[in-house]
Every structure is written in structure tokens, then in C-alpha cells.
Structures
1.
Amino acid sequence: MSHPPPSPIYTLRGAGGPLNSLHFRCYGEDAPLLFSGSGKGCIHIWNLNTRRTNKVIEGHSGSSIIWVCTKRSKDTLISQGRDMQICLWDLGEGRCDLLDSVWTGSVGFCQCSMLETSPISSLLAFAGQQTEEIKIIELPSKIQICTLMPVAKVGMVMCINLFQPDSCPGPLLLAGYEEGSLLLWDVTQQSILSQVKAHPDPVMCLTFDPTRLRGISGSSEKNLSSWKLDEKNNLQLQGGVTLANPGVSQLCIREDGKLLASAGWDSRVRVFGWKKLRPLAVLQYHTDMVLSVAFSDHQDPRQRLMAAGSKDQRISLWSLYNES
Amino acid sequence: MESVSDSDSVRLEVSACLRCLSSSDSSRNITVLQTLLSYLDEASHGAAQRAQFSRSHYSRTLRVLITTIEADWVHRLTARQREELWDALFLRGPPEQALLVLLEAIGELSPSTSLDHVVTITEKFLQDGRLTNLLWSYCVGSAQSDSPQLRETLLGRLSALPDIMANKLHHNISPLFLPQQYYPLLASAMLTALQRTCQALRDNINCSLAFVSQTLGKLCLQGHGGLVLAAMAPRLSACTRSDMVWQRVCWKLFESIPQRSMECVLTALVLAVSGPESLGRIVGNLVLRNKKAEFVITHKLLLLQYKYETGVLRTVLGYLAADRDRRPLLIQVLRCICQAWANPSAVKHTPMEQQLYVSKALLLSVSLLKDQELQDLRSELLQCLLGGMQSHLDSSVLRIRCVGMVVGECLSSRMDNADTKLKFEYEQDEETRELLSLMTPSGWCEPEPVDGSESLQETKELAPNTCSVASQRRQTTPPLAPTDPDSDLDSDDELTPYDMTEDQEVSQTSPPRYLRDCLESLMSSEDAMRVELSLKAADPLVRRNAFAAREISVQMSKVLLHMEDKYNIQGFLILRHAAMVALAVTDCIPVTQYLTTEFYSLNYSLRQRLDMLEVLVAAAQELSLPTTDKKNSSIISALDVAELPPFQGHDPVHWRQVVEKRIQSKTRRISKGASQPATAKATPNRYAPVAGYFFFPLLKNYDKPEVTFDLLGSDHLVLGRLIHSLGLFMHLAVNAPVAAQMGSALLDFVWTVRYHTDQMVRRGVLFAVCSVFLSMPSQNLLLDLGDMLFETRTWLTDVAEGDPDADCRSLAVQSLVLLDKSLKKQLKDPQSPSLES
């Protein structure tokens, strides 16, 4: 007899809008933090010890925030809004000053992807002004490294993931497009390495596990599609999972590579074993679409959390499979 | 001239000896005994003299010996002398005479040492294999005295020896005389006699098997066939495997069995042999030569009796099929079985077990047919199939329908190779699987002794042999659960999944929140999702909003009653049933009035009428349940609805069982003296005041046939359920004031249909009668029912004895018990008002 599904260990209310993006920062000495970007243009910084907001940043002139992220090295927060701006914030010593901002020109919902190449510099990929265009810049210099435009007609870019594999000298970029294709770009060569049609509908989200070279993408239909990157950098479809209800907003793999979580449009978070994609739990708490899901980066694995942000303006926090 | 003088001299000497024995000179008597014994020895006297002695004087001598058994000189003999002289006289002479005298003596002597002595001699007689000599002497015709009377007496004594012994000795009987030992001994004596016969035939000596046959016949006739043939059959089967002489002897043995015991012998043999092949070897073509045997094999075992296992059918039919000469009989048998199977009257009037037996026989014989024969019989089989299917499917008993479907499928698949097969949906259970397995001949071959050796030792060893074959076969079956090919250590298995049953599809539309919306969408919505949600919501909505429900109860009942499962909604029947029950419970009187009137009106399908009955029954059951308070009641009823099994309608046995259980518990409580649970809180019975509304309207109009509904005619399915429902209403109305009227009305109603041909109706009637006796106050039973009661009693006794349906019989017995209890209680109770009034 299997156990009934668990309940959230606590919830965070008061974001005041749908929660498009969640990001944990739990390593180091400071109190563990959770950043959330809401549809009302606010970035909330939640203290997970007190379970209250430390600070609220309103920096995108009320436009919806679609992505938040922090840099590993410094107290730098990056946020992306629908106002076509990417902002960098300095959070050190209680400040919250706008350091810099980048104009993207993208009107879509494509979230950026950041790859830290060295302690001081990092690469940032984002959707450009033209619907199929992806731009990559270097931070903090804001020098544009390249622009990736597919020749074939694949529609608007929906989601991207920038990563540095061991086999290649330069970074690679995975991008999902409106037509349902996944493209693997070599950033330095600015060429397409592989292309695969993963979904019949737009690719809504994707996530990639660079250590196992496997990834998974979700769409507006019922199937999650899993794929693998072989030695020759070819994408190969591997099958996938069928969900009970269609639509996935976000996918996230836990750092230890054991769990995969999906944020479903049916207001449920589903948890799978990442190795075989075995369904493990269906978490029902939210009353509206779940938009974002994230795993914490606690150093102690027992403290690890999973957060899910929903359109019902609540963030639920879960403690799952932390025993080992 | 010489022979005459010879015989005279023998006679004189024997007479002198016997006279001597009567006196009491012990030393002389020893020589006398020796003289007598010498007549049994080959050395001392001529053959003629010995024959003369055996024929004329042996019995007499033995009788004299028995009369002198108490004499002093006998007691003075040493044990050795007694054994060598006295006992030897019994054990060396012609065995048939010795046996007769011994048994005669045992019958006459009263318990004493003398009796013990005679018994010991008899025991020795059996142990020394004198029985074999006895049988053999008749085989070679050397038996001295052979008259029909003597033979008959001897046969009687032989076959009844354990009885004679037991009658005399009671508990002190030696195990050798117990049937379990004696009959196998006799069987082995017969086998030895047969073996000697075989040897003699090889040596060109004529033998007669008549006496052995008669013995066998007599044994079987007296009911010892099982023991005897269980010992003989394996040996016969083994010996006839390769030996033609043995075969001829066996055939002759069974052919010469007397007509009147042929049936018993054949039945016992069929039960004892291991398979059709050995039966064929043992009896040969007996069925063709012997009318009686033919009748037993082709008719009695297949069509008249039905107590045997499937193995017996296999043996009989396989035997008929095995030989070219017997094959016409198989065809003939098949025709008879077909007729029996397809006969609509048989379907109605014979017990279920017999029908199953005939079905098995039919399937087996069809599976034995060759394709050519099948072609010849095709039209007849088709005729049988069509008629039989119709009468089986017409039956209201699920099991009969099931059997019909299985047989139909098997027959059609055997007749048509390709496309035009029948295919039914029925539940697989042990019975259907067994029937289906009969069509595949692979399950046939039973382990048979392979070794045709003639020694008895060998055949005894065969049993463990076959066991080991079986066990080997069991071992060779491939091991189950092959190892999972993609099991590796690096898997997700360490993570235990949580329960994911809640992960259902989310529907877009929301369920209706108001009862009127619900009704609206049930009536007119074209949206499958909305209809489904409304149907699901109907039951809780009705129960929650009793006030609103009362306004639209009849209208909603009408809508639900006429609703069809247009959108293939999962659990449609359960949901609709639950909603209708909720309505009937919430607004009882108008809804029951509506349903009971509609039950007899035009243009409803049988299904709908059954639905009405089911709803009424479920509502009555719910109303009669005690409810502690309002809140609890809704929870309980909701639970009830949720726990409904798939759908009751298809399984009338289910709620019958529930009610039966209740009856049982009720009955027990009466006998224990009505011990009420102390914790029960008194609550008003919601059913008692409205019981009449459920009950009486259904009693009207039942005999008015409508165009579409003929309750007393072809629609007996509904009639059975109607009566059953009425019985249930009656049962639930226990302690209600109206119960007495209901009871007498119900008895009146069922009286007309008490001998209905359909067993479901009869069961319903008996159930109703049971519930009348249970629920009616006992003082009213005598008062209101009066004469009717005694006629009912007679009828119940009749049913309990003679009904072909086992359920009906047991129900009738149950009713009788209930009636008696109720009457006894009434008659014993001095304060009963009915006796005074």
C-alpha cells in the first residue's frame, strides 16, 4: 500500500500575482533565500528561516517578471521582465541597487539562460528582437558574442538552455521553438549541430542535465519528451512520459540528478525519478496553474526543498526524498 | 461292477469312521482322522476312491467333525495333532464344501472356544489361498458337486463373507474379514484364477469362466464393485496391454457376467479404469454384443445419471470413439445428447448439475468427432445448437445461461473453421474454464502404466512410477518470473512512489451547484461533460437540499428513469440508481407512487421495469435502516452508495445473499431469545409508516397483460424480481403495524404462481413466503391466515421434497422451520390474544 502524497511543509503567501519564476540561494552562511518573480512586476526575496519577505524589488515598471537568477560569486541578482529589460541588481550588504540593464527587444516569454564561465564573467543568452533570434552577450561587459538565427522556419524561440559540455571547447545552446523543434547550437561556430522534432506543439520548457547529457522538454500537450545527446552531439529522442492532463510550464532536475519535477497547467506538481522517469508523486495543493518549480541548492541534502509557484499567487514548499 | 464295490467300500469305511468320531476314544479317533485325511491324499487311495469321497462324503465328514468339536477327545488333542489332523481336513478337501460347512458352523455356534477355533480355520482357509483353488476348481470344471442351488448359495456366501463374520463376531472380528481386506483378497484370487486360465488356454485346456463372472457379478450387485475392481482393473489393464490371450479371457469374463449384474459391473469398472484405452482393452466390443451393456454405456451413464466426475465421461466417450466398430454408437450417443441438451423442457425441469453433466458429455463427444463425421452431422448439430442456445439463453438462471454460451461457442468454433464463430461475453470462472478445456484434447492423456509385465508386484509399483512422471512434468515447466532484463543498480527503485490514484483528468466544466440546474442539464444538455457531472452531483444534491428536492422529485425521477447512457458515462447505471434512490428516500410517497404506477404502464423496457423495482427496494432498505441523527444519515447513505458493487442489476444473487444473511441472523436471534444490543438507541423507523406505499400498488394489475408487458406470460424474469422485491418489502416491514395485512396479501398473491415453471420465480415465491413468516406477528399468522396456512404447509413440504432446484428446496425447508417456530411460539404463549378471541 503506497503512502498518500505528502503535503507542503509550508507555503508563502502575499506575492500578489502569479509566480513566473523561482530561484533559491541557500548555500553559504547567510539565511537561505528564495527569489520569486511575479506577474505584477515584483521580485520578492523570501527568507526561508523567518518565512517572510526580506525585501520586495519593483524594478520593471510593473511589467511581469519572467525570470530571476543570482550569480554564484557575488550578491548579484538578474531579473528579466516583459518590459524587454534584463536588470542586474546589487544585493550586497542590504542594498538593492540597479547595477546595469540590457535591452532585449523580445516580446515573447522566453526565459534567459546564464552560464558562468569564470568567477567574474558569464554568458547570458536571451531571445532577441526578431522572434527566432537568440542573442548571447558576455557579462559584465555586455559585449555581444553572437546571434543565432535558424535558417529553417521553426517559429518563435520558446526556451533556451546554455551549457558547457566536457567534450567541446565552446559552450552549446539548446533551444526549443514554437514549431516543436529542438535545436542544438554550437555557440562559437554559430552553427546548428543537431535538430529534432520533439513535440507537435510549441516547446514550453526544457531542462538539461549536463552530467548525464540527457534532457527533457514539455509542451502544451500531455507528453513530456526525453532526449539524449550522443558523442557526436546529436540529439536523440528517447521516449518520454504521458501525463494525465496536458500542459507543462516548467521542468526542473534536482542537483543530485535523482528527481525531476514538472509544473503542470492542471495545478499539480509531478515528481519523477530522473533516471528512468518513473512517476513518484503527484502533488496537489494549488488551485490554479503551476507556473514555476525549483529545487533548492542546500549544501546539506536533508534540508533540500522544492518550491512551486502558481497562478493562485502562492508558493508551496515541499520536502521530498531527502532521506539519503 | 468294480466301481460299485469301490464306492461301497468307501461308504462303509467312512461311515465306520464317523461312528467312531461320535464316541470319545481319543487314541482311536486319531487314527480315524488319519484314515479320513488319507482320502484327500493322492498317494494312499485310487483316484476313483478319492473322487467318491470328495463328492459324497466330504461334507458329511466335516459336519460330523463340527458336531464333535465340543467332545472331550478333541480337547485332548495336542495343538500339533489338531492342526495336522483336524484342521487339515478342512484345508485340504474341496474348498467349496469346506467353506460352506465352515460358514454354516460359524452361523450355528454360539460364542465359545469352538467358534474361535472354526473362525481360525476360516482365517487360515483364506490365508492359504483356498479361494483361488475354489475359483480355479470351477474354471476347470473339477468342482465335485455343481447344482444351480449350490452355486447360488456358494456365491451368496462368498460375496457376503464379511457380513456373516461381522454379524457373528461383532467387534472381535479379525482384520482379514473386513471388507477392505477381504474383497481385494478375493479380487486377487480371481486374478490368479484368470492367470491360470490364460496358462491353461495356452496349453490347450478348456476352461470355463462362468463362475468367476458370476462371482464378480454378485460382488458388484451387492455394492462391493468399487473395492474389487479397484484391485483388479490396474492389473487387467496392464496384462491386456500386450497379451492377446489375456484380452480374450477378459472379454469372455465380462461377456459371461449375468444380465442382471451387468450394470453394476460396468459402472464399477468404468470408475476404476484409468482411461478409455484400458477400458477398451478390458471389455473389448462388449457394447456391441450385449444389449444391457450397450444401454448402460450409451444411455444410463450419460443421460440418466449425473453424479460422476468428468473423467468417467471421458472414459466412456473415449471408449466409444476408440474403435471403428463402436464409432456408430458414438454418433448415436451424440444425437441423443444433442437432443437432451437442446430440449427446452429439460432446461427448465432438470437439475443444474445434470445439465452441466450433459453439456460436458456433448462437448466431449463433439471434440472426439472426426472432420468427416462432423460434416455429416453438421445440420443436426446446427439444429441442436440453435434450439439449445435459445432455450439456455431464455433461462433466468445465470449459470444455465453461462453454460449455454460456453457450449454454443465451443460447438460453433468446432463446426466452422473460420469466420462465423459465435462469441459471447461471460465471466470466466472455474466451471466455464473446465467446459472450455474439454474441447482441447491435449488435457486427455493420463499417465498410464507403460509396462505390460504380468507380475502383480510390477503393477503395484506402477503407482509411484506415474507419480514420479507427474512430478517430473511439474519440474520441467518453465520457471515463472524471468529476471527483469533492464534491472540495474542505477535505477529509481530506491525512491518509493507515493499514491498516485488521485491523478485523474481534470474536467473543464464545473458540477452544478443547484438542483434545478442539475435537472436542467440532465434534461436538455448536449454536453457530455455536463451531463456526467450533473449525474454525479445529483445524489448528494438531492440529499443536501431535501426541500428543493421535494418540489421536483417526481419530475426528476421521470427524467432519470428515461435517461439513456448516450455518452457512455463510466458507472452510469450506479450513478442513476443512486440518484433515483436518493429521490425516493427524500420524497418518499410521491416518488413511490409514481414508480409503482409506472411499473405497470405501457411502453417501458424490461430493463426500466427492473430498475424501478431496484430503486424501490434500495429506497426501502435505506429507509428501514436506523439513523441516529440527520448529519450521520447523509454520511451513511453516501457511503452506502459509494460502496455499491459494480452494478447490482446483473447480479440478483448479491442482494439475495445479503437478505438471506439477515434472515439467518434474525432466525438465530429468535432462538436465542431476542437479545437486543444494549447500546442501540431507539429511533423511529422511517420505513414503517410508508411501507404500504411501496407494497400494495405493486400487487394491483399484475394479471392484466399489456401489449408490451405480460407478467404472467413471457416476462417471468420481471415476475420473479417483482415477487422477490415484494418479499423484501415484507421483510423490512417487520414490526410495522401494516405487516399483518401485507403478509396475508402477499401470500394470496404468490399462491397463484407457486408452481411456476421458472425457477427464479419459484425462488422468489419461496423467499417471499419466508419473509412473511419472519415479519408477520405470530398471533396474526393463525388468525388471519387460518386454512391458508395449512395448505401452504403442504405445498412447502412438497417443494422441499421434489423441486429440481436445490435453492428452492433449501428455501422451502427454511420456510417450514420458520413457520413451525412461529406457530410454536404462538401456541405456547399463554398471553396470546388470538387464542382467546
2.
Amino acid sequence: MANGPPTPPPTTDVEIQDEARMSDASALAVEASSDPASESTSNAAPQPPLSPPIQLQDPYQLIFPRIAELSSQKRWIELIDIAEMTEINASNDQQLSRLFVIVPLILAYLIQNDLPIAKLVLERLPIDIRMSPLISNLGSLTKAYSAGAYEQIYSKANALVNLVAQPEFQQPELAQVINAMVECFLSSFRDRTFLLLSRAYTSMTLSLAEMYFGLGADELLPIAARHGWAYDTSTKVLKPVPTNETASFFPPAASSLANFNFIAQSVSLLEM
Amino acid sequence: MAPDSQSIDGLVQQITTSNNLEALAHTLRTSGTSGRDVREFILASSMSSGQDPLSVLDLRNNTLGVMYILSARLNIYLNAQSGVQRPPWAIVTQFCEIFDPEQARLAPERIVMLAKSLTRYAQEQGKLKLAIPLLYSLATRLPITLSTLTPIHHILLLTTLQARHITPEITRLLIEHPIDDLYMYSNIYPDHNLSYIDNLVYHYLGGVILTKTGNYTAAIDYFETALTAPSTTNSPPAGLQLEALKKLRLVQCIAMGGPQPLPKYTSPVLTRILKSTPYQNLINAFPGSLHAKDRGEGPSSGNNRLKQLVSKDRDFYASECNLGLVELLVAEAPKWVIKRLTETYVTLGLAEIGRYVGVDDEQQVRALVLKMIESKTIIATISDLGIVTFHDAPDTADVSVEDIRTLLGDLPSGTNLTKISVPILLEAVQVQSTHLAELDMEVGRSKEFIAKAIKTGGGISSALFFLRHPGIVQHTRFRYVYGWSRKWVRTRWGFS
């Protein structure tokens, strides 16, 4: 590691911005949580800000690099924790940069299949943030997910990806994170759907399967074949094979002594 | 040494130099010759050098002293505002995160005072949600176990709901640590003690939060606890308990298909009052309820009746803040119609099911059935021709404990019992019995129980009789504890 090539100096605008944000983030990460609270309340206790006020007042942008990092490592639970803490401690929750935190938070909840809390997060947003195209897209995705409307889920997810791909969308880092998370969501969602369908269907038509997975036949059939689903080309019918889901029941193999103790105890109680 | 407890300098010196925490606690607590209010003022003042005493003391090692000073200052600042310097919020935050629980337990009422004043302060600043992590930290670190109820707990839940900021952390706390102990202490400020209402409010709000996050089984347990909390004899049940009963019934319909029998120690007054409200008709019209009158007639009329009942009393439900739950109930009703169909049919077409449920669109019916299979409410398979086949529960169940509840639902008397594998049940029963035995031992040891047993049974021998036969707890006040412990055990079983 010590002998690796040195990092090239930041050249493009984006890199310069990132660099500035990174160094400030590390210096101010500790102060960010307490300062937004104290700057609005302290008049007696002098706490001089250490850097230009713009960054002090935007904890959302400060925490975003960390969120992006956690998202690339797929550490959703930590991402959720950090995002929720930022949400609580931020003093001004009306500003649009809140989207930097809210959108990954909701997507993380969806990936974890924690639907009710995702809906609660959407409900607690102020009106003008809710009206933003990003949130209204995310909202309709969540709604489709909770209704179990499979076609809509895939179309809404695609709409979201298309939205951030537009040139008018100014935040490339956020777009990157959104793309990655939507992909994760779709893949974990397809996995869950797969398990469910294996359990629920004895046979289904190909068109139905295409609807459930949001994939065309040529992409779907190899995956299905890999899992042992039989396909009848003449009638275009797939036969799912029930997969063994990991049993939530762990046989009490190693607890024989505990069992013995328990039985002996209950017998002695009976004797009394 | 001549301890000078009449000035802040003297107090600070004592705090920093004292080796004996108990003595220090005693000094701080007794206001001596000056009155209690004067002592509060002294605690809230700055030192003679003009320095802030909080900058001199260490937040963790001098927790006891800092506790007194912080709570006094915030309190006086909020009430009197007479030149008292408000402690900086950063210090309050830091204190709540790192305070030493052992020291704090020497004067718990100050922590409660601190919790109440910081919540009030946050609210007046318009930043209520800032108080949530602080309250969480105080409430979870002050008592010895996480399942002990303090006066701070209900403030935490109330703040969470008011700030509309429900986090997975709070939900985890509610689910994994149901209350089985109370944090009682004697102190000179009676309004900072744990009161009966605190318990009610905590469990009621806990149920509300859990309903919002979709954890219906846990919510049901919390509402039941609020509902069955014993009051002193001859006093009527609290209004909050009636609200808990209403919500309990609604959630039982949504999650289990119909009202379940209440515990035997519920106050009959509550059920009587509920019968006279529109809720009773609504619940009776619900498909899973035993009273559903449409069992014989055209089934989809039942759904229409439900919608009619709701639209008739819409304003009433809105005024009681239950409209959301009621509408959810109507939306979930078709599922329980389908569940009842499984008792009669082995196979059924999707179109037929649609007819029963009152939904024309086959895609919607398909989605509905799929959702029920996903949540394991029914066990069924669908064929490509749109025929649904209902199955019995498999012999070797890798059925988790959660699923047992929904599958069993309301067990009809005697009819086909679902086959669940024996090892699972055995393990669950074992865990339950050990918990129950522990609680019985605890109850039997308590002084009050022995005193009562001697009084009622007559003589020491009967007290010993009760001790040696744990589980036979009759006609004492601890009927409540026993039932409560049974419920707690059920909750543990459900979520361990």
C-alpha cells in the first residue's frame, strides 16, 4: 500500500468539489451534529464556527459521502442508522438538500423489505419536498410495492432511473447512488419474488412470469432453468419447483443436557 | 472538614473531592437549613469566579453532581428565567450519552426531572425531534435492565409520535424488551415518581407505534397490557383503557381475522361500554368474526355491509382518530373472506373467489391470493389455469412462531387442529415454563405476598404451602402479576 502510485491531483470540477467536501466533512463531522442545534439556540455560550457558514448549515451534504460509501459496500443497516441520526439532528429540515439523505434512506428501507417505515418516512416529509419529482417517483414506487402490483414496480423503478439520468439532474453523485440502490432493490426483490412464486405456483404461463419478474422471456428462461423449473415450449408453461427456504426452526440437537435438566426439574416439581 | 453546602463553590468542591458517593448523594438531596427552592437556585448559579460549574466538572465521573446542576438549571430557566444561564445543548447531549448509570441511580428523580425539562425545552424551540435520542439514551441506560419501566419511557414514546419520527430503534426496543419490571424509588418530589397513568400511556402509545410499523402481534400485546392494567377496586377503568380496547379490536380484526377473547381479568365495564358504540357493529360485520351474519347469504354482501357501516359513522371514527385503522380494516376484509373459504373448499377458481370477495378483476384477485400466500395467512398453490388449491399445514413444519399465531388464529372448538411439529412446540413450552418458574419464585419471595398469604390462609404453614407449590397463586393482588407475567411470557415466546 505504501508503494502504490500517488493519487493524481483533482482535475475535474466534480473531483475538486468532492475533495473540498471530504476534508471539511472529516473536520466538521463531529461538530455537524452539535452545531446545527447550538447555532440556533446559543446566544450566551460563544461557539465560533470554524468554517464558512454554508457548510455548517448543511449536514445533509456533509454526511452524503459517508452514505455513498456505505451504499457501495451494501451496508444498509449502518446507512439507515446514520441517515436517521442526521435527520434528527438537522436543524433546517425544509431545505432541498435533505433529499441527499432521504432518498437513500427510503431506498435502503425498501431493500430491507421494511415497507411500513419507508411509508412513515415519506409521510413525515414537508410538502415542498414531497412535491419534488424525485420524491413523487419514489412515493409511487413505494405505493406499487406495498400494493404488490408487480408490473408497476418495475415501471416505477425504471422511471426513477430515467429521471436521474436526465441531463437536468444536477447531482451526479446522488444519481450514482440512486442507480446502484435501485439495482440492489430490484435484485433482492426478484430473489424474494422467486422464492414466493416457487412456493405459490404449481404452473404458470410464460407471460405471467414475465410480468412478475419484469424480464423478457430470453432473460428469464435461463434463470428459471438454472433453478430447475421445467419449461414446456408448446404450451409456454413454466413449472416452478418449490425451493427449500432456510428453515427458521433449528432442531435442538445440542441441548440434550438442558433438556434433561428441564425434565428432571419438572418431574421433581410434580413429586412435591 | 466543614462542608459548605450553601454555596455553589462549596458544592462543586464537594462533588469533585468526595470519595463517598452515598454521602455526596445525601448532601445534595437534603437542602438543610435553606428551603428546597433556595437550594435549586444555588445549584443553578455560576461560581463566584464567574465560571460555569459545568466546565469544571467531568460529565462522566461527576455524574451525580452534574445531574443536580443540569436539572436545576434547565428547570429554573424554563420556569423562572431569572438570569440563570441555560446549559448549552451540546453539554446536555453529551451528558445524556455518557453519564454513569451507577451514579445516576443514586438520585433517579433528577434524571426524570432532566428528561422532562429537556423535552419541554426542545418543544419550545420547535425542535422536538432533537429530544428523541437523548430520551432514548436516558430511558435505556438508567434502569438496570432494558425491560424496566421508568417515568421517562412514556415521555420518549410521546415525543416520538409528536415529532412523527419513528425509527427502527424504537420499534426494536418495544418488540424485544417488553416491560416486566417497574423502576420505583422514593423521593421528595412526588410528581417525578412512576405513576399508574405512565404505565397506561406507555403501553397504549407503544401499541400505536407498533401498529403504524405493521407489527400487529406485538401491538396487540401492548394494547392488552394497557387494557388489563389493574386499577384499585371500585374505581372505574381509565378512558385510555377504553381507547386501547377499541384499537385492540380493530387491530385484531386486521391481523387475526376477528376479535379474540379478552383475558379474564379485563374490566367488564369496558366491554359493556364498547358494545354500545358503533365499533361493536363493525367488528361483528367483519368476515372473521364469529357473529358475522352473512355466513349463509351471498358472501360479497358482507363486504358491502362493512363499507356501509363505515360510511355511516365516518365522522365519528375521524373524531376518535381511528378512521385510518377502520379503512385499513375494510381493505383487509376480503382476505379473511378467503381464509374462511379454505375451511370449505379444497380447490377454487380465481373467478369464483372474486365473486365471493366482490372483486371483478381477476388480476386483483390473483394479487390478493398471492399476498396471502406470501404472508403465510393461507397455504395454497395456484395453477396456470387459475385454479387455487388450498393445502393443510405440512407435517414437518418449518413454521416459525409468528406463523403459528396467524395459522391458528382463533382456534375453533375441537375441529381439525393443524399439525405443527413437536420439537418446536416443546422448545417453546420449555422456554415459557422456565420463565414462568422464575417469575413464580420471585413473586413467592416478596414480602407482600407472604404477608397476604399468612393473613388469608392462616398461619405460616399456608405461606410455606404457597411457596412450595409455585403456580398456585389465588385471590391475592398478585393475580395481576401472574396474569401479567403470563402475558409477558407469551410475548417473550412470540419474539424470542
